[in-house]
């Protein structure tokens, strides 16, 4: 082997190795030597570059190079740095070690880098021909985990084999916990495998372990693997293993999991869920749930109070639930297919409600699949929707399909004349249009009984009377369901008349609206005295319309008082009075034909009996003439004060005294009595940037009889001056006492994301130790006046919510509501959290409320070892045994 480039000193062969100087000694002034070795014919594939700060020694006969002091070698994608490196060209072996200084401290610990992998060890041996290595006392990182090994071998496939290992996610040199394994094999960016292992916490071996270990370490953080279940107890279904199963990472875009629950008192749950995502295109999720619920009282050895159950439960039940969410990325000129599907069998949510508060409290579930597109360079758009609604009792409604076509509001002047507006009053007129056609199918079977208690005689398809619900829908019922379906088309015309200035200070905004609805059935009633029944004839087409007109008038009034004090410069009062008038004809008049006054015979005194019936199932406008004048008065009071940070006295800031103080009411000129509406008085403000105050109230201007009913006589007409009587009021005061709230605006933003499904209240949540303490207090009082002789009711509660860092590792959070009227705690929760560096400990206790119990969890913080945890929990779900 020949040296292509040699330093002059090496050429003479006079350089001899020297011992390293101590760390406190003066730095060596010898210029760093470097040698570049060209790739000859043989085992070396590319050029080897090496250098040393202290000295380089070449043994030509044995073909060995010694590098002393900050030695470095670069060979392709491999690099090595250490205090001492030996290159043996006969055996193709690189050897690197650290050296000790005069104090006995190791310096120049070898660092080996091969591609993206990096190793630090006391001694490294690497064969650059076979690409195999042997590393002693090494710490390697694989994903989120660290492997401490006494001895590591590395093969040409970059796989690592360790002897006497510690596998942990703690990044300290002496980890708080680790998995002790005699042998470990690590495949970079794939997984870590081990033989028999056990868990060691604080250098104390525990019996927790297994015959083998498998820890995925994928580069893209997506990998298939087993989902370890959690253990617990539920008073309704017994002991359980929950959320155990398998996760399958199909590719970078799709992942699926199959999980289940098993209960000791019988029953099980199965869940299949998948999520998918394509960047810049769409994302979504899909899931199917199956529950087998078993409720056998004999298994419990006692009875259960049905007063504590939200409904009577069946002895056994199989239920299903399907969910699908799909959301595309909006692109100009492209259509959007969105889906939000949530459908289940009738009993599913009642049973699932014992594990999920959201499922238990949900009254309805709605699903929709829609395609929507805006036509570019035009005001037109269209959409097609498939919708389904379901109540908690299982009643389903389908709309198949719901087709819409719309036109956004456009200026009539620009469309008709193609001219640029010049500011004339009529140029602000706009027109918009929306058309919707739908077909509604309901899981509802009409009974042959009308609202009068007599059986109906249906002409064609009569639809009047009570309904009974079916438990399920089958294909055999489809023809009947389609026949009883409801088809309609709605036209909405959006007419804008602009806004105008009157007398320089008033804003006038007139308005007019018109809508029309076409339906597939219209009823005509006739009374048959012989059978005391109502005959119903059905017409296949009906047309109903609605229109109204109105106008609003408003202005702003400002008043300023200049104080010119030390801090307060001025106080400003702003008043916003407003008047609005709306008119709608009496659509119950026979002229319109929307309602029918049906003659039902005579009473005992010989007087005729009439009843007004709508000739349409739904969508008929309200009866009665509407000529309504509403009024409002909004107030805002604020101060102009000198800024504390300004020493010149020329910088001011605004301080609000009352954000809003408003009074609203109305008067219906067309009503035959009780024309005045209730009067509302509301106020809200924020004090000292931390206290929010809100007040709401309603007043009745009329006198009442002994039963609490209004009579057509104002309170002002009675004895004394009493303009109105308070009917209900509410006061809410909340304060955020965290010092950070004084320095920042804590108002709630308007673009908060929607909340997802609630999590288990006993599961440990994320805790931020950077905030030393928080404290929020809220006080609420509500008053409702009883009708007639009924007593007034007052609700009075005090709540507190916050947390406290006892130390930089301990945090306590708390929440409680106290009912001042009942003098008892309505709800409370206490959490204790301990930061164990690479571990977390969480204790949660909920002594009051529907779901009561406790949870103690000690778990590894890393997501890689999230199933490595100890949990003890108990919950009662509000059910008491007798």
UniProtKB/TrEMBL annotation:
It comes from the Bacteria. InterPro entries: LptD (IPR050218), LptD_2 (IPR045659). Pfam families: LptD_2. Residues 192-702 form the LPS-assembly protein LptD central domain. This is LPS-assembly protein LptD central domain-containing protein. It comes from Pontibacter populi.
């Amino acid at each position: 082997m020949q040296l292509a480039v040699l330093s002059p000193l090496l050429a003479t062969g006079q350089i001899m190795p020297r011992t390293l100087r101590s760390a406190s000694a003066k730095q060596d002034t010898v210029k760093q030597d470097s040698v570049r070795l060209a790739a000859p014919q043989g085992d070396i594939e590319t050029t080897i570059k090496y250098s040393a700060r202290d000295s380089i020694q070449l043994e030509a006969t044995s073909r060995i190079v010694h590098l002393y002091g900050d030695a470095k070698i670069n060979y392709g994608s491999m690099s090595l740095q250490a205090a001492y490196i030996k290159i043996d060209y006969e055996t193709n072996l690189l050897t690197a070690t650290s050296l000790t200084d005069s104090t006995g401290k190791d310096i120049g610990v070898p660092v080996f880098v091969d591609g993206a992998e990096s190793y630090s060890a006391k001694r490294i041996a690497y064969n650059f021909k076979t690409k195999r290595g042997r590393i002693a006392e090494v710490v390697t990182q694989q994903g989120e985990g660290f492997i401490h090994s006494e001895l590591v071998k590395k093969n040409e496939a970059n796989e690592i084999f360790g002897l006497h290992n510690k596998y942990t996610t703690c990044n300290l040199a002496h980890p708080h916990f680790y998995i002790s394994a005699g042998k470990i094999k690590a495949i970079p960016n794939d997984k870590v495998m081990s033989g028999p292992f056990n868990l060691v916490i604080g250098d104390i071996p525990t019996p927790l372990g297994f015959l083998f270990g498998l820890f995925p370490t994928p580069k893209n953080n997506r990998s298939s693997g087993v989902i370890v279940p959690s253990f617990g107890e539920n008073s309704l279904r017994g002991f359980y293993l929950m959320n155990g199963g398998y996760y399958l990472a199909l590719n970078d875009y799709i992942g699926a999991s199959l999980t289940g629950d098993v209960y000791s008192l019988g029953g099980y749950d199965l869940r299949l869920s998948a999520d998918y995502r394509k960047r810049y295109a769409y994302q979504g999720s899909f899931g199917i749930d199956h529950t087998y619920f078993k409720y056998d009282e004999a298994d419990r050895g006692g009875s259960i109070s049905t007063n504590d159950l939200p409904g009577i439960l069946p002895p056994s039940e199989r239920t299903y639930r399907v969910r699908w969410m799909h959301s595309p990325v909006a692109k100009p000129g492209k259509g959007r297919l969105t889906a939000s599907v949530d459908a289940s069998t009738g009993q599913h949510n009642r049973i699932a409600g014992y594990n999920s508060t959201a499922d238990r409290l949900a009254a309805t579930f709605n699903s929709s699949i829609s395609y929507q597109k805006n036509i570019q360079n035009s005001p037109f758009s269209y959409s097609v929707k498939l919708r389904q609604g379901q109540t908690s009792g299982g009643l389903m409604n389908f709309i198949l399909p719901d087709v819409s076509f719309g036109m956004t509001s456009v200026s009539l002047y620009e469309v008709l004349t193609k001219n640029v507006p010049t500011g004339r009053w009529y140029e602000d007129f706009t027109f918009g249009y929306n058309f919707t056609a739908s077909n509604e199918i309901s899981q509802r079977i009409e009974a042959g009984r009308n609202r009068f208690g007599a059986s109906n005689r249906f002409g064609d398809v009569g639809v009047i009377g009570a309904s009974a619900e079916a438990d399920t829908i089958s294909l055999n019922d489809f023809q009947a369901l389609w026949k009883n379906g409801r088809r309609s088309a709605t036209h909405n015309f959006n007419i804008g008349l602009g806004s105008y200035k009157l007398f320089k200070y008033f804003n006038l905004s007139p308005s007019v609206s018109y809508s029309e609805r076409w339906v597939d059935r219209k009823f005509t009633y006739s009374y048959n005295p012989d059978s005391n029944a109502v005959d119903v004839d059905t017409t296949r087409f009906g047309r109903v319309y609605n229109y109204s007109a109105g106008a609003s008038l408003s202005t702003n009034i400002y008043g300023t008082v200049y104080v010119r004090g030390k801090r307060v410069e001025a106080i400003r009062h702003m008043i916003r009075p407003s008047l609005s008038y709306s008119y709608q004809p009496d659509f119950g008049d026979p002229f319109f034909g929307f309602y029918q006054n049906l003659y039902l015979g005579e009473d005992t005194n010989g007087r005729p009996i009439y009843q007004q019936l709508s000739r349409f199932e739904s969508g008929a406008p309200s009866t009665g003439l509407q000529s309504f004048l509403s009024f409002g008065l909004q107030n805002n009071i604020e101060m102009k004060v000198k800024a504390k940070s300004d020493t010149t006295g020329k910088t001011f800031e605004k301080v609000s005294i009352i954000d809003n103080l408003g009074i609203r009411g109305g008067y219906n000129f067309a009503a035959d009595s009780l024309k005045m509406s209730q009067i509302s008085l509301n106020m809200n403000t924020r004090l000292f940037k931390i206290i929010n105050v809100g007040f709401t109230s309603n007043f009745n201007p009329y006198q009442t009889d002994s039963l609490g009913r209004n009579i057509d006589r104002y309170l002002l007409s009675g004895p004394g001056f009493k303009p109105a009587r308070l009917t209900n009021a509410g006061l809410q005061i909340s304060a955020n006492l965290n010092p950070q709230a004084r320095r920042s605006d804590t108002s709630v933003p308007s673009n908060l994301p929607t909340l997802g499904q609630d999590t288990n209240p006993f599961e440990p949540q994320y805790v931020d130790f950077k905030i030393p303490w928080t404290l929020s207090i809220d006080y609420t009082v509500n008053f409702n006046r009883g009708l007639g002789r009924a007593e007034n009711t007052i609700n009075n509660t005090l709540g507190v919510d916050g947390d406290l860092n006892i130390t930089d590792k301990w945090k306590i959070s708390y929440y409680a509501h106290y009912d001042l009227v009942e003098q008892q705690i309505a709800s409370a929760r206490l959490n204790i959290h301990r930061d164990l560096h690479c571990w977390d400990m969480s204790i949660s206790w909920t002594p009051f409320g529907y779901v009561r119990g406790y949870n103690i969890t000690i778990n590894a913080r890393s997501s890689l070892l999230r199933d490595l945890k100890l949990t003890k929990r108990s919950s009662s779900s509000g059910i008491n045994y007798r």
